[in-house]
Amino acid sequence: GLLVVGDVVTDVVARHRTPLAPATDTAAEIRTLPGGAGANVACWAARSGCPDVRILARVGTDRAAWHEERLRRAGVRPLLVPDANAPTATVVALVDAAAERTFLTDSGAALRLGVGDWSPSLLDGVYHLHLSGYLFFAGTSRETARLALVTARERGVPVSVDPASAGFVTELGVGRFLAVVEGADVLLPNADEATLLTGLADAADAAAKLSRHFPLVAVTLGAAGALVAASGGIIARVPAPEVRAVDTTGAGDAFTGGFLAALLSGADAASAAAAGCRAGAQAVTALGGRPQEG
Ligand code: ADP
């Protein structure tokens, strides 16, 4: 199976129709949705046909059961560590009439994933490990993610990493990020992250450069699709299906889930990227970061 080590997050999306002001906006529509980059990748991989997908994550006791239920319904086996001392990670997204978004985030229990939560036996029956980049931004979860990566490599289990966000990579430092993900087999950045990691403005140049350090690199380009690089050169350029975008939350996670499901089923990297683009395009047509139920 595929093991994802990552973050499970509650997304609270509030749409308001007027500019935000210190008053009660009774016209607001507020939805609570399951999210988190790691959990979204796991759900999209399962939706894309990957068998036996599991996720290891820490959640608060406040919403552990709610998240478990939603992961199970999406076909993912939840390995959630309940934390009585922190709430489940929560992101509040304020979306205004012009679709401008403001995010307020509380990483809560997610980044408290500790080395004591890891065990090599978590890799029993696992043939691929995916690490959500968010884990790398707090000491405790970073140490745990690194330990998981090293254990997987010792066992010959390939590892993929998604850098999460350019802002977080900047905060951590590019050198530090590259050092901590050293040894990963697949890197899945978006164009901004690829540029940040290499200092190269052109996404194709950045992808090619990254592929000298990581055996397989797929860089996502939003509506323009994705690039795949290996051994220092571009090996595929894949267009994204044309769709009407409603909410781009989780597009990158959907790409990663679709890409990994295809790759693990034996597809070549170019076909895997095409599968990733199909999942990404599907994700932007609906609200939230998870596949639609049913
Ligand atoms: P991230 O969400 O990590 O920034 P991207 O914005 O690059 O990632 O999107 C990931 C993938 O989702 C793209 O490679 C593409 O396949 C798909 N996608 C994103 N935005 C659109 C769009 N407007 N139309 C069609 N596909 C899209």
Automatic annotation (TrEMBL):
GO MF: kinase activity
Residue intervals of the Carbohydrate kinase PfkB domain: 1-290
Protein's organism: Streptomyces ficellus
SUPFAM superfamilies: Ribokinase-like
InterPro entries: Carb_kinase_PfkB-like (IPR052700), Carboh/pur_kinase_PfkB_CS (IPR002173), PfkB_dom (IPR011611), Ribo/fructo_kinase (IPR002139), Ribokinase-like (IPR029056)
Similarity comment: family membership: Belongs to the carbohydrate kinase PfkB family.
Domain of life: Bacteria
Name the UniProt record assigns to this protein: PfkB family carbohydrate kinase
PANTHER family noted in UniProt: CARBOHYDRATE KINASE PFKB DOMAIN-CONTAINING PROTEIN (PTHR43320:SF3), SUGAR KINASE (PTHR43320)
Pfam families: PfkB (PF00294)
Keywords on record: Kinase, Transferase
